[in-house]
Design goal:
- This protein is of the alpha/beta class.
- 33% of the residues lie in helices and 16% in strands.
- The strands form 4 sheets. Strands 3-2-1-4-16 form a 5-stranded parallel sheet, sandwiched between helices.
- α3 crosses α5, α7 runs antiparallel to α9 and α14 packs across α15.
- The protein is globular.
- It starts with 5 loop residues before the first helix and ends in an 18-residue tail after the last helix.
Length: 486
Amino acid sequence: MADPKGFLTTGREVARTRPVGERVKDWNEVYVPGSLLPIISKQAGRCMDCGIPFCHNGCPLGNLIPEWNDYAYREDWQAASERLHATNNFPEFTGRLCPAPCESACVLGINQPAVTIKNVEVTIVDKAWDSGDVTPQPPERLSGKTVAVIGSGPAGLAAAQQLTRAGHTVAVYERADRIGGLLRYGIPEFKMEKRHINRRIEQMRAEGTKFRTEVEIGRDVDAAKLRGRYDAVVIAAGATTSRDLPVPGRDLAGIHFAMEYLPLANKVQEGDLTVSPITAEGKHVVVIGGGDTGADCVGTAHRQGAASVTQLEIMPRPGEERNPGQPWPTFPMLYKVTSAHEEGGERVYSVSTTHFEGDEDGNVQWLHLVEVEFSGGKLEQKPGTERRIPAQLVTLAMGFTGTDRENGLVEQFGLELDERGNIARDGEYATNVPGVFVAGDAGRGQSLIVWAIAEGRSAARGVDRYLAGTSTLPAPVRPTDRALTV
Protein backbone atom coordinates (compact mmCIF):
# COMPACT_ATOMS: atom_id res chain seq x y z
CA MET A 1 0.00 0.00 0.00
CA ALA A 2 1.33 3.44 -0.93
CA ASP A 3 0.53 5.52 2.15
CA PRO A 4 -1.64 3.78 4.78
CA LYS A 5 -2.86 7.13 6.07
CA GLY A 6 -2.87 9.00 2.78
CA PHE A 7 -6.63 9.06 2.37
CA LEU A 8 -6.93 10.47 5.90
CA THR A 9 -4.19 13.10 5.79
CA THR A 10 -4.24 14.32 2.18
CA GLY A 11 -7.14 16.10 0.52
CA ARG A 12 -8.02 15.80 -3.15
CA GLU A 13 -6.11 18.23 -5.34
CA VAL A 14 -6.42 18.36 -9.13
CA ALA A 15 -4.47 19.93 -11.98
CA ARG A 16 -4.54 23.73 -12.06
CA THR A 17 -5.95 25.45 -15.13
CA ARG A 18 -4.55 28.57 -16.70
CA PRO A 19 -6.49 31.83 -16.14
CA VAL A 20 -9.53 32.12 -18.40
CA GLY A 21 -8.44 35.45 -19.83
CA GLU A 22 -5.16 33.89 -20.92
CA ARG A 23 -6.26 30.55 -22.30
CA VAL A 24 -9.15 31.77 -24.46
CA LYS A 25 -6.57 33.74 -26.47
CA ASP A 26 -4.79 30.56 -27.59
CA TRP A 27 -5.52 26.92 -28.38
CA ASN A 28 -3.05 25.28 -26.03
CA GLU A 29 -4.22 22.81 -23.40
CA VAL A 30 -5.98 24.57 -20.55
CA TYR A 31 -3.85 23.14 -17.73
CA VAL A 32 -0.80 24.82 -16.24
CA PRO A 33 2.19 22.87 -17.60
CA GLY A 34 3.97 20.91 -14.88
CA SER A 35 1.42 21.75 -12.18
CA LEU A 36 0.68 18.11 -11.38
CA LEU A 37 4.17 16.80 -10.72
CA PRO A 38 4.72 18.54 -7.35
CA ILE A 39 1.45 17.19 -5.93
CA ILE A 40 0.81 13.92 -7.73
CA SER A 41 2.80 11.54 -5.51
CA LYS A 42 0.77 12.54 -2.47
CA GLN A 43 -2.42 12.30 -4.52
CA ALA A 44 -1.47 8.76 -5.57
CA GLY A 45 -0.88 8.02 -1.89
CA ARG A 46 -4.59 8.60 -1.22
CA CYS A 47 -5.29 5.25 -2.93
CA MET A 48 -6.52 2.76 -0.32
CA ASP A 49 -5.23 -0.32 -2.15
CA CYS A 50 -8.66 -1.88 -1.64
CA GLY A 51 -9.04 -5.62 -1.27
CA ILE A 52 -11.60 -5.43 -4.06
CA PRO A 53 -10.64 -2.40 -6.17
CA PHE A 54 -13.91 -1.32 -7.76
CA CYS A 55 -12.00 1.13 -9.93
CA HIS A 56 -11.18 -1.98 -12.01
CA ASN A 57 -14.88 -2.50 -12.59
CA GLY A 58 -15.49 1.12 -13.45
CA CYS A 59 -12.74 1.00 -16.08
CA PRO A 60 -13.45 -1.29 -19.06
CA LEU A 61 -9.71 -1.57 -19.71
CA GLY A 62 -9.21 -3.14 -16.30
CA ASN A 63 -6.39 -0.69 -15.56
CA LEU A 64 -4.17 -1.81 -12.68
CA ILE A 65 -4.86 1.39 -10.81
CA PRO A 66 -3.73 0.53 -7.24
CA GLU A 67 -0.47 -0.85 -8.63
CA TRP A 68 0.54 2.21 -10.60
CA ASN A 69 -0.72 4.49 -7.81
CA ASP A 70 1.74 2.73 -5.51
CA TYR A 71 4.62 3.22 -7.96
CA ALA A 72 3.67 6.86 -8.53
CA TYR A 73 3.63 7.47 -4.78
CA ARG A 74 7.15 6.03 -4.59
CA GLU A 75 8.13 8.01 -7.71
CA ASP A 76 9.18 4.86 -9.53
CA TRP A 77 7.93 6.28 -12.82
CA GLN A 78 9.39 3.54 -15.03
CA ALA A 79 7.58 0.78 -13.15
CA ALA A 80 4.41 2.88 -13.06
CA SER A 81 4.56 3.29 -16.84
CA GLU A 82 5.02 -0.44 -17.35
CA ARG A 83 1.92 -1.21 -15.26
CA LEU A 84 -0.05 1.55 -16.98
CA HIS A 85 0.82 0.38 -20.50
CA ALA A 86 0.09 -3.23 -19.59
CA THR A 87 -3.62 -2.54 -20.06
CA ASN A 88 -3.84 0.72 -22.02
CA ASN A 89 -2.19 1.50 -25.35
CA PHE A 90 -2.79 5.23 -25.13
CA PRO A 91 -2.99 6.50 -21.53
CA GLU A 92 -2.12 10.04 -22.64
CA PHE A 93 -5.42 10.07 -24.54
CA THR A 94 -7.59 8.67 -21.76
CA GLY A 95 -5.77 10.72 -19.11
CA ARG A 96 -6.90 13.85 -20.92
CA LEU A 97 -10.23 12.90 -22.47
CA CYS A 98 -11.89 10.12 -20.48
CA PRO A 99 -14.64 11.20 -18.00
CA ALA A 100 -13.04 8.78 -15.52
CA PRO A 101 -15.65 6.14 -14.62
CA CYS A 102 -12.83 4.67 -12.52
CA GLU A 103 -13.07 7.64 -10.17
CA SER A 104 -16.84 7.22 -9.86
CA ALA A 105 -16.17 3.62 -8.76
CA CYS A 106 -13.33 4.50 -6.35
CA VAL A 107 -14.04 3.04 -2.89
CA LEU A 108 -12.75 6.21 -1.25
CA GLY A 109 -15.46 8.04 -3.18
CA ILE A 110 -18.18 6.46 -1.05
CA ASN A 111 -17.77 9.17 1.58
CA GLN A 112 -14.83 11.31 0.43
CA PRO A 113 -13.62 12.89 -2.82
CA ALA A 114 -12.25 10.09 -4.99
CA VAL A 115 -8.60 9.56 -5.82
CA THR A 116 -7.48 11.71 -8.76
CA ILE A 117 -6.86 8.60 -10.89
CA LYS A 118 -6.98 10.46 -14.19
CA ASN A 119 -4.37 13.00 -13.10
CA VAL A 120 -2.05 10.26 -11.85
CA GLU A 121 -2.45 8.42 -15.15
CA VAL A 122 -1.55 11.38 -17.34
CA THR A 123 1.42 12.29 -15.13
CA ILE A 124 2.84 8.77 -15.40
CA VAL A 125 2.61 8.63 -19.18
CA ASP A 126 3.90 12.17 -19.70
CA LYS A 127 6.89 11.34 -17.49
CA ALA A 128 7.41 8.14 -19.50
CA TRP A 129 7.56 10.08 -22.76
CA ASP A 130 9.89 12.70 -21.28
CA SER A 131 12.18 9.98 -19.90
CA GLY A 132 12.29 7.95 -23.09
CA ASP A 133 10.52 4.99 -21.51
CA VAL A 134 7.93 4.80 -24.30
CA THR A 135 9.68 2.98 -27.12
CA PRO A 136 8.58 0.98 -30.19
CA GLN A 137 7.81 -2.69 -29.52
CA PRO A 138 8.16 -4.40 -32.90
CA PRO A 139 7.28 -8.10 -33.10
CA GLU A 140 10.04 -10.69 -32.82
CA ARG A 141 8.75 -12.46 -35.92
CA LEU A 142 6.11 -11.94 -38.58
CA SER A 143 3.15 -14.26 -39.02
CA GLY A 144 2.81 -13.73 -42.76
CA LYS A 145 -0.82 -12.69 -42.23
CA THR A 146 -2.21 -9.32 -43.27
CA VAL A 147 -4.92 -7.19 -41.64
CA ALA A 148 -6.70 -4.04 -42.80
CA VAL A 149 -8.08 -1.70 -40.13
CA ILE A 150 -10.73 0.75 -41.32
CA GLY A 151 -10.68 3.88 -39.19
CA SER A 152 -7.89 5.46 -37.14
CA GLY A 153 -9.75 6.54 -34.03
CA PRO A 154 -8.87 5.03 -30.63
CA ALA A 155 -10.49 1.65 -31.40
CA GLY A 156 -8.75 1.29 -34.75
CA LEU A 157 -5.37 2.40 -33.43
CA ALA A 158 -5.58 0.06 -30.43
CA ALA A 159 -6.51 -2.90 -32.62
CA ALA A 160 -3.75 -2.06 -35.10
CA GLN A 161 -1.06 -1.76 -32.46
CA GLN A 162 -2.03 -5.00 -30.76
CA LEU A 163 -2.12 -6.93 -34.05
CA THR A 164 1.16 -5.44 -35.25
CA ARG A 165 2.86 -6.47 -32.03
CA ALA A 166 1.41 -9.96 -32.47
CA GLY A 167 3.35 -10.23 -35.73
CA HIS A 168 0.70 -9.50 -38.34
CA THR A 169 1.22 -6.96 -41.11
CA VAL A 170 -1.35 -4.22 -40.50
CA ALA A 171 -2.49 -1.33 -42.68
CA VAL A 172 -4.78 1.37 -41.25
CA TYR A 173 -7.12 3.13 -43.70
CA GLU A 174 -8.36 6.62 -42.82
CA ARG A 175 -10.65 8.74 -44.97
CA ALA A 176 -9.36 12.04 -43.57
CA ASP A 177 -6.02 13.57 -44.52
CA ARG A 178 -4.44 12.77 -41.14
CA ILE A 179 -4.48 9.84 -38.77
CA GLY A 180 -6.49 10.05 -35.54
CA GLY A 181 -10.19 10.02 -36.39
CA LEU A 182 -12.23 12.05 -33.92
CA LEU A 183 -9.13 12.35 -31.73
CA ARG A 184 -7.65 14.46 -34.52
CA TYR A 185 -10.59 16.45 -35.83
CA GLY A 186 -13.35 16.05 -33.24
CA ILE A 187 -11.40 16.93 -30.08
CA PRO A 188 -10.33 20.58 -29.84
CA GLU A 189 -6.66 21.40 -29.39
CA PHE A 190 -7.32 22.96 -25.99
CA LYS A 191 -8.46 19.57 -24.67
CA MET A 192 -5.63 17.57 -26.23
CA GLU A 193 -2.79 18.95 -28.26
CA LYS A 194 -2.30 16.86 -31.38
CA ARG A 195 1.40 16.32 -30.71
CA HIS A 196 0.27 13.52 -28.41
CA ILE A 197 -1.30 11.71 -31.37
CA ASN A 198 1.66 12.39 -33.63
CA ARG A 199 4.23 10.73 -31.39
CA ARG A 200 2.05 7.64 -30.93
CA ILE A 201 1.72 7.36 -34.69
CA GLU A 202 5.50 7.51 -35.03
CA GLN A 203 5.83 4.78 -32.41
CA MET A 204 3.37 2.61 -34.33
CA ARG A 205 5.16 3.25 -37.63
CA ALA A 206 8.43 2.16 -36.01
CA GLU A 207 6.70 -1.03 -34.87
CA GLY A 208 5.60 -1.76 -38.44
CA THR A 209 2.03 -0.48 -38.75
CA LYS A 210 1.26 1.06 -42.15
CA PHE A 211 -1.06 4.04 -42.59
CA ARG A 212 -3.13 4.99 -45.63
CA THR A 213 -4.81 8.41 -45.41
CA GLU A 214 -7.43 9.96 -47.70
CA VAL A 215 -8.79 6.52 -48.57
CA GLU A 216 -12.47 5.94 -47.80
CA ILE A 217 -13.47 2.31 -47.93
CA GLY A 218 -16.76 2.07 -49.79
CA ARG A 219 -16.10 5.11 -51.97
CA ASP A 220 -12.43 5.07 -52.97
CA VAL A 221 -11.92 1.33 -52.53
CA ASP A 222 -14.66 -1.27 -52.85
CA ALA A 223 -15.07 -3.05 -49.52
CA ALA A 224 -15.38 -6.48 -51.11
CA LYS A 225 -12.13 -5.94 -53.00
CA LEU A 226 -10.40 -4.85 -49.81
CA ARG A 227 -11.53 -8.08 -48.15
CA GLY A 228 -9.88 -10.01 -50.98
CA ARG A 229 -6.55 -8.30 -50.41
CA TYR A 230 -6.23 -9.07 -46.70
CA ASP A 231 -6.50 -12.12 -44.50
CA ALA A 232 -8.73 -10.18 -42.07
CA VAL A 233 -10.41 -6.80 -41.76
CA VAL A 234 -11.26 -4.77 -38.65
CA ILE A 235 -13.98 -2.15 -39.06
CA ALA A 236 -13.42 0.67 -36.59
CA ALA A 237 -15.15 3.42 -38.53
CA GLY A 238 -17.00 4.89 -35.55
CA ALA A 239 -20.60 6.06 -35.22
CA THR A 240 -20.28 9.21 -37.28
CA THR A 241 -23.87 9.79 -38.38
CA SER A 242 -24.97 12.88 -36.43
CA ARG A 243 -28.46 13.12 -34.93
CA ASP A 244 -30.38 15.83 -36.78
CA LEU A 245 -33.03 18.28 -35.60
CA PRO A 246 -35.92 18.22 -38.12
CA VAL A 247 -37.74 21.43 -37.20
CA PRO A 248 -38.87 24.34 -39.42
CA GLY A 249 -35.95 26.51 -40.49
CA ARG A 250 -33.36 23.74 -40.22
CA ASP A 251 -32.18 24.51 -43.77
CA LEU A 252 -31.20 28.10 -42.95
CA ALA A 253 -27.54 29.02 -43.42
CA GLY A 254 -25.53 29.04 -40.21
CA ILE A 255 -26.91 25.77 -38.74
CA HIS A 256 -24.28 23.03 -38.68
CA PHE A 257 -23.57 19.67 -37.11
CA ALA A 258 -20.88 19.84 -34.45
CA MET A 259 -18.73 17.56 -36.59
CA GLU A 260 -18.91 20.08 -39.41
CA TYR A 261 -17.87 22.89 -37.11
CA LEU A 262 -15.16 21.37 -34.88
CA PRO A 263 -12.93 19.78 -37.58
CA LEU A 264 -12.54 23.10 -39.37
CA ALA A 265 -11.27 24.76 -36.19
CA ASN A 266 -8.75 21.95 -35.83
CA LYS A 267 -7.66 22.36 -39.44
CA VAL A 268 -6.78 25.97 -38.64
CA GLN A 269 -4.54 24.71 -35.84
CA GLU A 270 -2.95 22.18 -38.21
CA GLY A 271 -2.07 25.06 -40.55
CA ASP A 272 -4.38 23.95 -43.37
CA LEU A 273 -6.60 27.04 -43.09
CA THR A 274 -5.98 30.62 -42.05
CA VAL A 275 -9.54 31.17 -40.86
CA SER A 276 -12.32 28.61 -40.40
CA PRO A 277 -15.11 28.85 -43.02
CA ILE A 278 -17.51 28.38 -40.09
CA THR A 279 -16.55 30.84 -37.39
CA ALA A 280 -18.24 32.19 -34.27
CA GLU A 281 -16.45 35.52 -34.42
CA GLY A 282 -18.81 38.33 -33.45
CA LYS A 283 -21.86 36.04 -33.56
CA HIS A 284 -24.48 34.94 -31.07
CA VAL A 285 -23.84 31.20 -30.86
CA VAL A 286 -26.28 28.54 -29.72
CA VAL A 287 -25.10 25.00 -29.02
CA ILE A 288 -27.86 22.39 -28.91
CA GLY A 289 -26.79 19.46 -26.77
CA GLY A 290 -25.41 19.39 -23.25
CA GLY A 291 -22.74 16.69 -23.53
CA ASP A 292 -19.00 16.76 -24.06
CA THR A 293 -19.27 17.52 -27.77
CA GLY A 294 -21.48 20.49 -26.94
CA ALA A 295 -18.89 21.70 -24.42
CA ASP A 296 -16.22 21.40 -27.13
CA CYS A 297 -18.33 23.69 -29.33
CA VAL A 298 -18.67 26.15 -26.44
CA GLY A 299 -14.91 26.32 -25.86
CA THR A 300 -14.24 26.66 -29.58
CA ALA A 301 -16.74 29.51 -29.90
CA HIS A 302 -15.07 31.35 -27.00
CA ARG A 303 -11.70 31.16 -28.74
CA GLN A 304 -13.15 32.36 -32.01
CA GLY A 305 -14.51 35.50 -30.34
CA ALA A 306 -18.26 34.81 -30.13
CA ALA A 307 -20.49 37.69 -29.03
CA SER A 308 -22.40 35.27 -26.78
CA VAL A 309 -22.66 31.51 -26.27
CA THR A 310 -25.77 29.66 -25.09
CA GLN A 311 -25.91 25.90 -24.60
CA LEU A 312 -29.32 24.19 -24.62
CA GLU A 313 -30.19 20.84 -23.04
CA ILE A 314 -33.57 19.13 -23.24
CA MET A 315 -33.06 17.25 -19.95
CA PRO A 316 -33.32 18.85 -16.47
CA ARG A 317 -30.16 20.10 -14.84
CA PRO A 318 -28.47 17.22 -12.96
CA GLY A 319 -27.66 17.51 -9.28
CA GLU A 320 -24.19 18.19 -7.91
CA GLU A 321 -24.30 15.12 -5.65
CA ARG A 322 -25.23 11.49 -6.30
CA ASN A 323 -28.93 10.81 -5.99
CA PRO A 324 -30.22 7.56 -4.45
CA GLY A 325 -31.14 6.22 -7.88
CA GLN A 326 -27.49 6.27 -8.96
CA PRO A 327 -25.63 4.65 -6.07
CA TRP A 328 -21.89 4.02 -5.85
CA PRO A 329 -20.11 2.50 -7.81
CA THR A 330 -22.25 3.36 -10.86
CA PHE A 331 -21.35 6.29 -13.10
CA PRO A 332 -23.62 9.11 -11.91
CA MET A 333 -25.24 11.85 -13.96
CA LEU A 334 -23.91 14.96 -12.25
CA TYR A 335 -23.79 18.65 -13.06
CA LYS A 336 -20.40 19.02 -14.70
CA VAL A 337 -18.52 22.26 -15.23
CA THR A 338 -15.89 21.73 -17.91
CA SER A 339 -13.06 24.12 -18.70
CA ALA A 340 -15.20 25.48 -21.55
CA HIS A 341 -18.06 26.29 -19.17
CA GLU A 342 -15.64 28.07 -16.84
CA GLU A 343 -14.87 30.42 -19.72
CA GLY A 344 -18.37 31.86 -19.91
CA GLY A 345 -21.68 31.43 -21.66
CA GLU A 346 -25.13 30.45 -20.48
CA ARG A 347 -26.47 26.93 -19.95
CA VAL A 348 -30.22 26.44 -20.27
CA TYR A 349 -31.88 23.18 -19.23
CA SER A 350 -35.31 21.65 -19.84
CA VAL A 351 -35.89 23.38 -23.16
CA SER A 352 -36.71 22.17 -26.67
CA THR A 353 -36.19 23.96 -29.98
CA THR A 354 -39.43 24.53 -31.89
CA HIS A 355 -38.11 26.31 -34.98
CA PHE A 356 -35.50 28.65 -36.42
CA GLU A 357 -36.08 32.10 -37.87
CA GLY A 358 -33.88 33.70 -40.52
CA ASP A 359 -33.34 36.99 -42.32
CA GLU A 360 -34.24 37.88 -45.88
CA ASP A 361 -30.99 36.34 -47.13
CA GLY A 362 -31.70 32.94 -45.60
CA ASN A 363 -29.31 33.21 -42.65
CA VAL A 364 -30.38 32.02 -39.23
CA GLN A 365 -31.01 34.88 -36.77
CA TRP A 366 -33.24 33.50 -34.03
CA LEU A 367 -33.91 30.21 -32.29
CA HIS A 368 -37.39 29.66 -30.85
CA LEU A 369 -37.63 27.39 -27.82
CA VAL A 370 -40.10 26.23 -25.22
CA GLU A 371 -39.65 24.85 -21.73
CA VAL A 372 -40.40 21.15 -21.30
CA GLU A 373 -41.00 18.77 -18.43
CA PHE A 374 -41.46 15.06 -17.95
CA SER A 375 -44.99 14.10 -17.00
CA GLY A 376 -46.10 10.50 -16.74
CA GLY A 377 -42.88 9.39 -18.41
CA LYS A 378 -43.51 11.64 -21.41
CA LEU A 379 -41.86 14.90 -22.43
CA GLU A 380 -44.40 17.71 -22.63
CA GLN A 381 -44.15 21.38 -23.50
CA LYS A 382 -45.10 23.92 -20.84
CA PRO A 383 -47.69 26.36 -22.24
CA GLY A 384 -46.77 30.03 -22.14
CA THR A 385 -42.99 29.44 -21.94
CA GLU A 386 -42.20 30.04 -25.60
CA ARG A 387 -39.45 32.56 -26.34
CA ARG A 388 -36.71 33.26 -28.83
CA ILE A 389 -33.02 33.87 -28.42
CA PRO A 390 -30.51 35.36 -30.89
CA ALA A 391 -28.72 32.73 -32.94
CA GLN A 392 -26.40 33.57 -35.81
CA LEU A 393 -24.48 30.31 -35.55
CA VAL A 394 -26.10 27.09 -34.34
CA THR A 395 -24.24 23.83 -33.75
CA LEU A 396 -26.09 20.54 -33.33
CA ALA A 397 -24.32 18.37 -30.75
CA MET A 398 -27.05 15.88 -29.91
CA GLY A 399 -25.07 12.69 -30.35
CA PHE A 400 -24.74 10.11 -33.09
CA THR A 401 -27.09 7.49 -34.47
CA GLY A 402 -24.74 4.92 -35.98
CA THR A 403 -22.01 4.20 -38.46
CA ASP A 404 -21.93 5.84 -41.90
CA ARG A 405 -24.34 4.09 -44.29
CA GLU A 406 -23.89 6.46 -47.22
CA ASN A 407 -20.37 5.48 -48.24
CA GLY A 408 -21.33 1.93 -49.19
CA LEU A 409 -19.13 0.12 -46.69
CA VAL A 410 -21.95 -1.77 -44.97
CA GLU A 411 -23.65 -2.83 -48.19
CA GLN A 412 -20.47 -3.76 -50.06
CA PHE A 413 -19.30 -6.01 -47.26
CA GLY A 414 -22.83 -7.41 -46.86
CA LEU A 415 -22.85 -6.72 -43.14
CA GLU A 416 -25.79 -7.39 -40.85
CA LEU A 417 -26.90 -4.70 -38.42
CA ASP A 418 -28.37 -5.08 -34.95
CA GLU A 419 -31.67 -3.59 -33.78
CA ARG A 420 -29.96 -0.30 -32.96
CA GLY A 421 -28.38 0.11 -36.38
CA ASN A 422 -24.88 -0.87 -35.31
CA ILE A 423 -22.84 -3.51 -37.12
CA ALA A 424 -23.72 -6.86 -35.55
CA ARG A 425 -20.95 -9.05 -34.12
CA ASP A 426 -20.53 -12.21 -32.07
CA GLY A 427 -18.58 -12.80 -28.88
CA GLU A 428 -15.29 -12.68 -30.80
CA TYR A 429 -16.17 -9.34 -32.43
CA ALA A 430 -16.68 -11.15 -35.73
CA THR A 431 -19.38 -10.01 -38.15
CA ASN A 432 -21.49 -12.26 -40.33
CA VAL A 433 -18.81 -11.96 -43.04
CA PRO A 434 -15.92 -14.43 -42.45
CA GLY A 435 -12.70 -12.62 -41.56
CA VAL A 436 -14.40 -9.26 -40.97
CA PHE A 437 -14.49 -7.94 -37.40
CA VAL A 438 -15.86 -4.75 -35.87
CA ALA A 439 -14.68 -2.73 -32.87
CA GLY A 440 -15.60 0.51 -31.16
CA ASP A 441 -18.58 2.74 -31.82
CA ALA A 442 -19.35 1.08 -35.17
CA GLY A 443 -20.42 -2.01 -33.22
CA ARG A 444 -21.22 -0.64 -29.77
CA GLY A 445 -22.78 2.69 -30.70
CA GLN A 446 -21.67 6.07 -29.37
CA SER A 447 -19.50 5.52 -26.34
CA LEU A 448 -16.40 6.70 -24.45
CA ILE A 449 -12.77 6.67 -25.55
CA VAL A 450 -11.89 4.15 -22.86
CA TRP A 451 -14.49 1.73 -24.24
CA ALA A 452 -13.14 2.25 -27.76
CA ILE A 453 -9.61 1.31 -26.72
CA ALA A 454 -10.90 -1.68 -24.74
CA GLU A 455 -12.90 -2.88 -27.74
CA GLY A 456 -9.94 -2.41 -30.07
CA ARG A 457 -7.78 -4.56 -27.81
CA SER A 458 -10.50 -7.19 -27.48
CA ALA A 459 -11.23 -7.32 -31.21
CA ALA A 460 -7.51 -7.76 -31.84
CA ARG A 461 -7.62 -10.96 -29.82
CA GLY A 462 -10.53 -12.23 -31.92
CA VAL A 463 -8.63 -11.46 -35.13
CA ASP A 464 -5.45 -13.05 -33.80
CA ARG A 465 -7.32 -16.26 -32.92
CA TYR A 466 -8.95 -16.28 -36.34
CA LEU A 467 -5.57 -15.97 -38.07
CA ALA A 468 -3.40 -18.09 -35.78
CA GLY A 469 -5.85 -20.49 -34.15
CA THR A 470 -4.94 -19.23 -30.68
CA SER A 471 -4.03 -15.95 -29.05
CA THR A 472 -2.29 -14.60 -25.98
CA LEU A 473 -3.59 -11.08 -26.53
CA PRO A 474 -5.85 -9.68 -23.77
CA ALA A 475 -9.57 -9.12 -24.24
CA PRO A 476 -10.71 -6.79 -21.45
CA VAL A 477 -14.36 -6.54 -22.54
CA ARG A 478 -16.98 -8.59 -24.36
CA PRO A 479 -19.22 -7.02 -27.00
CA THR A 480 -22.16 -7.40 -24.64
CA ASP A 481 -20.50 -5.69 -21.67
CA ARG A 482 -21.93 -2.34 -20.67
CA ALA A 483 -20.84 0.54 -18.46
CA LEU A 484 -21.53 0.39 -14.74
CA THR A 485 -24.68 2.53 -14.79
CA VAL A 486 -28.32 2.33 -13.75
